[in-house]
């Protein structure tokens, strides 16, 4: 563990707070998925734009917060982020039109993006390459509860009240997290904050990062994988509910099955990273994901695809996220420890910005069958695997 200049809390406390921060993205999106039909009816607009606008704000804002955190530390941006998140959540709860909620979702994202981005940076501040991968696997194991509970909680709220209450709940969660941040140490080493330089110099880090192929290889592999993953997240409600006629109340359980797979693989990955190099784990995980999706493409075009096949192979694909996310992020950040904040911001921006690509591609290719979803997923799963297998020098 690296030395921090504040006393580090117990590992259990650190795990709990960092996991909650890492879960902010999933919670901010998944909790209101069951409410989207009701919101569509009330607001009379394209409610899917509330996800797109959130991801746009989430992706762009990280690029600003990352260099700032490398200059002023991790905790101050987290505090500011939680305040912005609470204000945005209240704005969403009070919205009466689709334009209003789209605006406040962007505002909400400006704060929410600090949570997972700086949680990753703090892990890199505190832990070295292998330990960081183990810690990220543990965080993914815990944070995976959010995508399971989110839709279930949102569905229960709708039974008792309106969708507005969901956003009031998010505001309360933001306030709780604001208090919890006081328990975190300031992990960024003040000796490398370069306080004598203008802050604009910190933004020049992005140029250096984009030119660093060793770093970008991991980022591109992760981004391509997440384009496929978000294609599933955005496209699966239509496929499961409209095409296969799954009851909307049961959709959450099918969605949660994939998250259980991520949790199981994350648990296994904690042990694998001690024995197998991170880049090798990434190669094989992306290859397994690609093979799963290519199998679905084959089954679809040979007219043998059924719901059981779809559930099984999507489970295989999505479970690999337990390896892909942890190994790619840990390996990438280990290459540029002096720019961990900026690097984490660039990773997060591309990772979550991938959802914008997914939603746009599904809009153009939307059909009443799984075809568009599995084709997009297969293409980007293959791209992720190809990038992972490109030869390059690895650190020992």
Automatic annotation (TrEMBL):
<dbReference type="InterPro" id="IPR036259">
    <property type="entry name" value="MFS_trans_sf"/>
</dbReference>
<dbReference type="InterPro" id="IPR020846">
    <property type="entry name" value="MFS_dom"/>
</dbReference>
<dbReference type="Pfam" id="PF07690">
    <property type="entry name" value="MFS_1"/>
</dbReference>
<keyword id="KW-1133">Transmembrane helix</keyword>
<dbReference type="GO" id="GO:0015385">
    <property type="term" value="F:sodium:proton antiporter activity"/>
</dbReference>
<feature type="transmembrane region" description="Helical">
    <location>
        <begin position="135"/>
        <end position="153"/>
    </location>
</feature>
<feature type="transmembrane region" description="Helical">
    <location>
        <begin position="218"/>
        <end position="244"/>
    </location>
</feature>
<feature type="transmembrane region" description="Helical">
    <location>
        <begin position="12"/>
        <end position="33"/>
    </location>
</feature>
<feature type="transmembrane region" description="Helical">
    <location>
        <begin position="307"/>
        <end position="333"/>
    </location>
</feature>
<keyword id="KW-0812">Transmembrane</keyword>
<dbReference type="GO" id="GO:0005886">
    <property type="term" value="C:plasma membrane"/>
</dbReference>
<keyword id="KW-0472">Membrane</keyword>
<feature type="transmembrane region" description="Helical">
    <location>
        <begin position="372"/>
        <end position="390"/>
    </location>
</feature>
<feature type="transmembrane region" description="Helical">
    <location>
        <begin position="345"/>
        <end position="366"/>
    </location>
</feature>
<feature type="transmembrane region" description="Helical">
    <location>
        <begin position="250"/>
        <end position="269"/>
    </location>
</feature>
<feature type="transmembrane region" description="Helical">
    <location>
        <begin position="77"/>
        <end position="96"/>
    </location>
</feature>
<feature type="domain" description="Major facilitator superfamily (MFS) profile">
    <location>
        <begin position="11"/>
        <end position="396"/>
    </location>
</feature>
<keyword id="KW-1003">Cell membrane</keyword>
<feature type="transmembrane region" description="Helical">
    <location>
        <begin position="45"/>
        <end position="65"/>
    </location>
</feature>
<comment type="similarity">
    <text>Belongs to the major facilitator superfamily. Bcr/CmlA family.</text>
</comment>
<dbReference type="InterPro" id="IPR004812">
    <property type="entry name" value="Efflux_drug-R_Bcr/CmlA"/>
</dbReference>
<keyword id="KW-0997">Cell inner membrane</keyword>
<feature type="transmembrane region" description="Helical">
    <location>
        <begin position="102"/>
        <end position="123"/>
    </location>
</feature>
<protein>
    <recommendedName>
        <fullName>Bcr/CflA family efflux transporter</fullName>
    </recommendedName>
</protein>
<keyword id="KW-0813">Transport</keyword>
<feature type="transmembrane region" description="Helical">
    <location>
        <begin position="165"/>
        <end position="184"/>
    </location>
</feature>
<dbReference type="InterPro" id="IPR011701">
    <property type="entry name" value="MFS"/>
</dbReference>
<feature type="transmembrane region" description="Helical">
    <location>
        <begin position="281"/>
        <end position="301"/>
    </location>
</feature>
<dbReference type="GO" id="GO:1990961">
    <property type="term" value="P:xenobiotic detoxification by transmembrane export across the plasma membrane"/>
</dbReference>
<dbReference type="GO" id="GO:0042910">
    <property type="term" value="F:xenobiotic transmembrane transporter activity"/>
</dbReference>
